[in-house]
Design a protein that fits this description.
heterodimer; A: alpha/beta; D-Maltodextrin-Binding Protein, domain 2; five-stranded mixed beta sheet; 19 helices; flat; B: alpha+beta; OB fold (Dihydrolipoamide Acetyltransferase, E2P); seven-stranded mixed beta sheet; five-stranded antiparallel beta sheet; globular
Chain lengths: 532, 240
């Protein structure tokens, strides 16, 4: 009997041991040390992104050098990317091997995916309030912004399931860059707030050609009046402006609805006439605009240095460039009294490590990237805006804005007007709910516009049946029907699933039975060995 | 009599050789429902096209798709982001014959086939580079779009105001494309060493990193377009 009990005990122990293994691979939650050890050498890695812009690279390098001068025990290694998607892919690959960088530039949608691991990304609230090393803490060796100095709207965008997992680094929105010369030639004036009806009307007016097929407005054989760069943003903003469903905070997908279908019918209508196209179908809207082959080019404010006939950066040859006046406006609206526009731009998240001192060093560098020196310098490279009031309200930044149009480089008019567009419309910006899978939903939103436009061009029939199939196909392609809506980070992986627990109990029971069998077998042998 | 017989044999041999030569150069015989290259060229943008072609090079595979440089004996077809599994990608080696059904598209001046499906067929063909040096700056160059071509005796020009002979898209990490300009008789071409085709460990990437302004070079490339001629370089060496 004692042996039986012992067997049972060991089996239970085995089951418990297996259960204990579950979720033990992750790191412990980060706890901020009280002191930062300045005598300890510390090396951190920062994965940054630039827009193929050497000035941005130099700003990062200067920031690192200045920071290392303040903290000689910290060495910052930077790896530069030119694409957010590549950063995302590399981070995902490195999470499984615990080789993530210490800091990396990311979109909140991507951070939501990083969070599916256990304690991978450090939540920042405790660090914000750290008395010595928090935002503006007593032991911080530079003039860091205080929490209340970060634009609240931008900080909220870094909140996922109620916790702050990143700090905003730069913010931009989308702008409609307009060839004013052509709009006026068509007999229209440009309103302060564009409406979708206005955009479609002027675009259709621009499609008039002479008998040879030459467009009257530009005298060329190519004219695509309205080109949208990011069709995911196009769909997202249109839905938000119409107060139509997209998704909720819990990650429930609601994009496949009648409003979406109605919007896609409009896209189809204007694709059919040739008045509308997209970056994926034709090319960069700015290139067409600069060549006098487009009238309304929607692209990020962070791409403003490529837009306009006097743009400091050009992607087409000089001989194709057309002289025109560029006007910058917010994206078209359904209700101009209540404009709504996307807020976008890079944020920075911090990865957990076994050594809390290393994490604290990362946190100090993260704060440094929000100082006025870095914020103002970087925002001036493109149509970005700084993410702190401290920088936005500084004399240096105000002076920069006031010199709009003084030259075609540092004070390039279109770039500064793009920044001012966001500064004066920040209250109208929004972001979409972030959850594991929100990046796929965003892709799906754009894909529906792309597919519709391509289908029209390929002379396929666009009707309700088409959209029904499109919804089904896109839903499947992006696995939106398999979305794990509650998969954001927990402190551990939680209790074992019932199926796993059942399996372990069965395994334990099998071991018990083997033990019982062995016991009786032994008993039988002993009996057999006894003299008859 | 012997002389006449000898002459006849020589003539017969000559005719036979000529016949052989002709059969090697003749255009591909296309399967049923498959376009000739001329029909492909004549097809409108956004129309469905069906071609038989041979893989000449490929960019790296990612997310169940890859981009291929393909060519038959009459012309070339650029297959952009054609869906394929990694296993299929590995089978699509240089010379492999494929039947491709997709849509003729144009992006920034590059005519390509998108949203394509393919099937592997029997046959093999590897193109040799067509010397397009004399066509630089002429409209006739466009007739060789996407083909493997050579530009010989080119002079490396300064890429930008810095005076450098080339520029990285990602200077810090060298994990992206490499650009340079080269000219012949005052006509300049912008070249691209496409990272996903020939990365930083390839001979061509390293060769271009060694370029100096004024160098005379021979370049082999696929005649890609991006807002004008912007070939993807696969070979670069000092001019012979």
């Amino acid at each position: 009997m004692i042996r039986k009990l012992l067997s049972l005990f060991f089996c239970l122990l085995f089951v418990l041991a297996l259960a204990g293994c579950h979720g033990s691979q992750g790191l412990d939650p980060f706890e901020a040390p009280e002191e930062f050890d300045l005598s300890k050498r510390c090396e951190i890695t920062f994965w940054a992104k630039n827009d193929t812009n050497k000035v941005q690279t130099k700003i990062y390098e200067k920031a690192i050098a200045d920071f290392e001068a303040l903290y000689p025990n910290i060495k910052v290694n930077m790896r530069l990317y030119t694409d957010y998607g590549k950063i995302y892919n590399d981070v995902i690959t490195n999470i499984s091997t615990n080789t993530t960088p210490n800091l990396c530039i990311s979109y909140p949608d991507h951070i939501a995916t990083y969070l599916t691991g256990s304690n991978v990304v450090v939540p920042l609230e405790d660090l914000f309030d750290h008395p010595k090393y928090g935002l503006g803490g007593s032991e911080v060796r530079f003039d860091a912004p205080k929490k209340e100095e970060i634009i609240p709207q931008f900080l909220r965008e870094c909140t996922i399931e109620g916790r702050t997992y990143a700090l905003p680094y730069m913010r931009s929105t989308e702008a409609c860059y307009i060839n004013k010369t052509y709009v006026e030639a068509l007999g229209y004036e440009i309103p302060e707030i564009l409406t979708w009806d206005y955009i479609w009307e002027v675009s259709e007016a621009a499609m008039q050609r002479d008998a040879d097929g030459t467009f009257l407005v530009n005298g060329q054989t190519i004219m695509i009046p309205f080109i949208y760069k990011s069709t995911d943003n196009m769909m997202i903003q249109m839905l938000r402006q119409k107060d139509a469903p997209y998704s909720n905070e819990q990650g429930e997908i609601a994009i496949f609805n009648d409003t979406t279908k109605e919007l896609l019918y409009t896209v189809a209508e204007h694709t059919k006439t040739g008045a509308f196209s997209t970056f994926k179908i034709d090319s960069y809207p700015g290139n067409f605009l600069n060549a006098g082959q487009c009238i309304f080019a929607v692209d990020s404010t962070a791409g403003a240095t490529w837009i306009g006939s006097k743009a400091p950066l050009l992607d087409i040859s000089e001989d194709k460039l057309v002289d025109f006046e560029t006007v910058v406006r917010p994206v078209p609206q359904f209700d101009p009294e209540h404009p709504k526009m996307i807020s976008q731009g890079p944020s920075i998240c911090m990865f957990n490590k076994r050594d809390p001192q290393q994490v604290l060093a990362s946190w100090l560098f993260l704060q440094y990237l929000l100082t006025n020196d870095v914020q103002i310098a970087y925002s001036e490279t493109e149509g970005y805006v700084p993410v702190t009031k401290k920088a936005q309200e500084s004399e240096e930044y105000r002076d920069y804005l006031s010199r709009c149009g003084e030259d075609t480089s540092e004070h390039y008019e279109v770039k500064i007007k793009a920044s001012e567009l966001l500064l004066s419309n920040t209250q109208y910006t929004f972001t979409t709910p972030v959850f594991n899978g929100s990046a796929s939903l965003r892709d799906a939103a754009g894909q529906m516009i792309e597919n519709t436009a391509k289908s029209v061009r390929r002379r396929q029939t666009i009707d309700d049946a088409y959209f029904e199939k499109l919804f089904t196909d896109v839903n499947a392609l992006y696995h939106l029907d398999q979305n794990d809506t509650g998969a954001i980070e927990k402190s551990s992986l939680g209790p074992l699933p019932k199926t796993a627990l059942t399996l372990l109990i069965v395994l334990g029971a099998v071991w018990v039975l083997i033990g019982v069998w062995a016991f009786f077998n032994l008993l039988r042998r002993k009996k057999a060995d006894l003299p008859h | 009599m012997k002389k006449i017989i000898a002459l006849l044999i020589v003539l017969a041999l000559c005719v036979a050789f000529a016949g052989c030569s002709k059969s090697e150069e003749k255009a591909d015989v296309k399967g049923e429902g498959v376009m000739t290259y001329a029909q492909y060229v004549a097809a409108a943008i956004d129309s469905e096209v069906v071609v038989e072609t041979y893989v000449q090079a490929k960019q790296s595979w990612w997310d169940n798709k890859a981009t291929f440089y393909t060519q038959d004996k009459d012309g070339a077809y650029f297959l952009y982001e054609m869906p394929c599994t990694e296993e299929e990608y590995n089978k699509l080696t240089k010379g492999t014959k494929i039947k491709v059904t997709g849509f003729k598209s144009e992006w920034s001046g590059e005519v390509e086939i998108t949203d394509a499906k393919f099937e592997i067929e029997e046959g093999s063909y590897t193109a040799s580079a067509f010397d397009a040096t004399s066509l630089i700056g002429s409209a006739d160059l466009d007739k060789h779009a996407n083909e493997l071509v050579a530009f010989k005796g080119m002079t490396v020009e300064a890429y930008d105001e810095s005076g450098a002979a080339f520029a990285y898209k990602n200077e810090a990490e060298k994990t992206d494309d490499l650009y340079f300009k080269a000219s012949k008789d005052g006509k300049t071409i912008d070249f691209c060493v496409e990272f996903y085709l020939t990365g930083k460990d390839t001979d061509v990437y390293k060769a271009v990193e060694g370029f100096k302004v004024g160098d005379k070079v021979d370049i082999e490339c696929f005649l890609y377009y991006y807002n004008g001629v912007n070939p993807h370089v696969v070979g670069a060496a000092a001019s012979k």
